[in-house]
């Protein structure tokens, strides 16, 4: 590999601002959900994803991939959500090896109750400081970064020769 492309002063400032902002945002959302709803942000995200899926169900594998949670982390979280009767795990009749997580009515009610406070906190810490134009620009920037991640992930999965050459 040739020389390292070090961050210049502006990039270094932007990188560190991003890291700090990301940390503070996650902490604010975690505090708000714990305070108002007694649930960690990770559990909230599981409920959200299940609520948006057909039949409020999804395989554990799909849920893990969407949330970018390890299988063990997701399994532990779903166990806690089962204890609250917010989620239940089922086996698919056509494939008993596949475990499906299903959002219960109680879980949906907990999500409906938690959502307004969560959305208000997201708005307060992320969107309120920005102008509408900055929100659009921020969204475009994030879409660009996510597209690059998805491209590289797909290329890695296919064993792309272009990525192999870039690594040399």
From TrEMBL:
<dbReference type="InterPro" id="IPR039422">
    <property type="entry name" value="MarR/SlyA-like"/>
</dbReference>
<protein>
    <submittedName>
        <fullName>MarR family transcriptional regulator</fullName>
    </submittedName>
</protein>
<dbReference type="GO" id="GO:0003700">
    <property type="term" value="F:DNA-binding transcription factor activity"/>
</dbReference>
<dbReference type="InterPro" id="IPR036390">
    <property type="entry name" value="WH_DNA-bd_sf"/>
</dbReference>
<dbReference type="Pfam" id="PF12802">
    <property type="entry name" value="MarR_2"/>
</dbReference>
<dbReference type="InterPro" id="IPR000835">
    <property type="entry name" value="HTH_MarR-typ"/>
</dbReference>
<feature type="domain" description="HTH marR-type">
    <location>
        <begin position="11"/>
        <end position="147"/>
    </location>
</feature>
<dbReference type="GO" id="GO:0006950">
    <property type="term" value="P:response to stress"/>
</dbReference>
<dbReference type="InterPro" id="IPR036388">
    <property type="entry name" value="WH-like_DNA-bd_sf"/>
</dbReference>
């Amino acid at each position: 590999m040739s020389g390292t492309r070090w961050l210049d002063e502006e990039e270094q400032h932007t990188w560190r601002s991003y890291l700090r902002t990301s940390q503070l945002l996650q902490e604010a959302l975690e505090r708000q959900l714990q305070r108002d709803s007694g649930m960690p942000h990770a559990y909230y995200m599981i409920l959200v994803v299940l609520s948006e899926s057909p039949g409020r169900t999804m395989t554990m594998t799909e849920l893990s991939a969407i949330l970018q949670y390890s299988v063990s982390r997701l399994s532990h979280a779903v166990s806690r959500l089962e204890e609250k009767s917010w989620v239940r795990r089922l086996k698919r009749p056509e494939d008993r090896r596949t475990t499906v997580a299903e959002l219960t009515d109680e879980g949906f009610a907990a999500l409906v109750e938690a959502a307004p406070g969560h959305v208000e906190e997201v708005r307060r810490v992320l969107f309120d400081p920005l102008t509408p134009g900055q929100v659009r620009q921020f969204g475009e920037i994030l879409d660009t970064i996510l597209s690059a991640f998805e491209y590289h992930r797909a290329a890695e999965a296919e064993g792309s020769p272009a990525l192999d050459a870039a690594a040399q």
